[in-house]
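Anyone up for a design puzzle?
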């Protein structure tokens, strides 16, 4: 159950991020067709969330984007009819669905370690999906075919390059952060070991002092003639001996810990 909820949260995150980043766009032909940053965000999240179904995610996004843009259009054009809205925005749903299918067929996730292949595959997914969307939008026929295809190809390349740049930048800073955390941990460990060695030095010295105090107490026991005082001196000697044993146990424990730390690579 918890796993299902986590997956649902990931799908929700992808949908929200893609839909809202889709509001950052260029509209080169002054029509409902647009180039958005949503595709870049979608690509990055599909790579990041490796345990979710790409097809499921892009199908959901296709529906969400269609509904969201339709809603925005209805709010700004109250007189719009249902057929007009469908005509304007169903192609964008097809774009995302086709994008997901191509993303899987070309195994874009599996090409992260091959930058050229990754860029080429993502570029193809983007450009081919946009070409299908353009074909479905009849109003685009009013523009030069060469101009439209060139714009799609250039934008597809730009978004593919931006995606891999952001991905590599994120990986670089994550690795850098992890390296800094490891170095910080190592410095703290070195300081801890140094402090333990200092404490060990003083504990050893204290053990010697305790040994001397115990010997003096025993000497006092030997010299005293009064039975009560002798018994008290002996008890003091025994107590000091117990304290010495505790100190030795502590010293041994610290020495063992330091030896283990030294043996670790």
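Challenge accepted. My sequence:
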């Amino acid at each position: 159950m918890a796993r299902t909820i986590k997956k649902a949260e990931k799908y929700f995150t992808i949908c929200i991020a893609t839909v809202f980043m889709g509001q950052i766009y260029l509209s080169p032909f002054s029509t409902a067709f647009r180039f958005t940053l949503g595709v870049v965000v979608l690509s990055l999240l599909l790579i990041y969330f490796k345990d979710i179904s790409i097809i499921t995610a892009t199908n959901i996004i296709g529906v969400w984007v269609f509904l969201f843009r339709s809603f925005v259009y209805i709010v700004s054009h109250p007189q719009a009819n249902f057929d007009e809205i469908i005509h304007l925005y169903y192609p964008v749903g097809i774009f995302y669905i086709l994008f997901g299918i191509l993303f899987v067929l070309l195994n874009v996730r599996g090409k992260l370690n091959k930058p050229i292949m990754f860029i080429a595959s993502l570029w193809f997914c983007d450009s081919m999906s946009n070409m299908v969307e353009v074909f479905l939008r009849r109003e685009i026929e009013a523009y030069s075919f060469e101009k439209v295809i060139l714009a799609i190809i250039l934008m597809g390349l730009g978004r593919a390059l931006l995606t891999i740049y952001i991905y590599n930048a994120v990986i670089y800073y994550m690795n850098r952060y992890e390296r800094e955390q490891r170095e910080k941990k190592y410095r703290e460990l070195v300081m801890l070991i140094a402090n333990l060695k200092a404490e060990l030095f003083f504990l050893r010295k204290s053990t010697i002092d305790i040994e001397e105090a115990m010997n003096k107490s025993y000497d006092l026991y030997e010299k005293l003639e009064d039975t009560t005082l002798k018994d008290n001196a002996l008890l003091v000697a025994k107590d000091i001996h117990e304290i010495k044993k505790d100190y030795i146990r502590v010293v041994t424990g610290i020495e063992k810990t330091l030896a283990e730390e030294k043996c670790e690579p």
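A detail worth pointing out: DSSP finds seven helices and two strands in the chain.
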